[in-house]
Amino acid sequence: MIRVENLKKSFDGKNVLHDISFTVEEGEVVCVIGASGSGKSTMLRCLNYLEQKDSGTIEISGSVIEGRRAETELRQKVGMVFQHFHLFPHKTVLENVIEAPVHVLGRKKDEAVAEAMVLLEKVGMKEKADDYPASLSGGQQQRAAIARALAMKPDVMLFDEPTSALDPELVGEVLETMKQLAAEGMTMMIVTHEMNFAREVSDRMMLLHEGRIVEDRPSKELFSSPREEATKAFLRRVL
Ligand code: ADP
Ligand code: MG
């Protein structure tokens, strides 16, 4: 579903991603861990064309993403959920969810609404469809943001620390929603510090250290027998 080869990215002459290569199979859930500044967000953002790579190949569900088509194509295939929800504040939850299907994909409004309500029910937000983001808890806003990303029918969902900005008591409901998506077979890459969730839900874990993937293994193995010093140090800090 995702193939990345020799991805490189620098900012102002400073290499942030050195030479990243990996694949993610359809239905696989991969958690990405690593210290702050190791390049996790930049890697996900390159996959979604929020950052433009310097070089390397990115292929998503069978198409190599290159040139002028890249941005539109990627935005449709890849859904992204951020730490700070980024909902449109002056739109209701429902309006947020139908915005891209109607304005980007040109879907009929009544069809988009019907599909949005199914998604909102799935994330437990149907009753809040007509509410504005400011009146919702962080967990509810994040679940609405997940529904909004799903409304584009993406092949892949990327999550960048989706629970880091939430009060502790709201983390569980968002992780539960993500767990449900994983169980339905969605292909997912998740940057997270929630190690119990990662261990339970992900097939594989990838550790980024200074812009390189230093470990990429089945989650259970990585926890029970980390190979690299950087992994051991990271696990000591978060566990
Ligand atoms: P992580 O998500 O693992 O904390 P990031 O991908 O955000 O790491 O950042 C990796 C490095 O790239 C950091 O040194 C950060 O300062 C730098 N960086 C990220 N985005 C930009 C940008 N837009 N301009 C300049 N430097 C950036
Ligand atoms: Mg980050």
TrEMBL record:
GO terms for molecular function: ABC-type amino acid transporter activity; ATP binding; ATP hydrolysis activity. Coiled coil: none annotated. GO terms for cellular component: plasma membrane. CDD domains: ABC_HisP_GlnQ. SUPFAM superfamilies: P-loop containing nucleoside triphosphate hydrolases (SSF52540). Transmembrane segments: none annotated. It is a peripheral membrane protein. Residues 2-235 form the ABC transporter domain. It comes from the Bacteria. InterPro entries: AAA+_ATPase, ABC_ATPase_HisP-typ, ABC_transporter-like_ATP-bd, ABC_transporter-like_CS, MetN_ABC_transporter-like, P-loop_NTPase. PANTHER family: AMINO ACID IMPORT ATP-BINDING PROTEIN, GLUTAMATE_ASPARTATE IMPORT ATP-BINDING PROTEIN GLTL. This is Amino acid ABC transporter ATP-binding protein. It comes from Alkalicoccus luteus. The lineage of its organism: Bacteria, Bacillati, Bacillota, Bacilli, Bacillales.
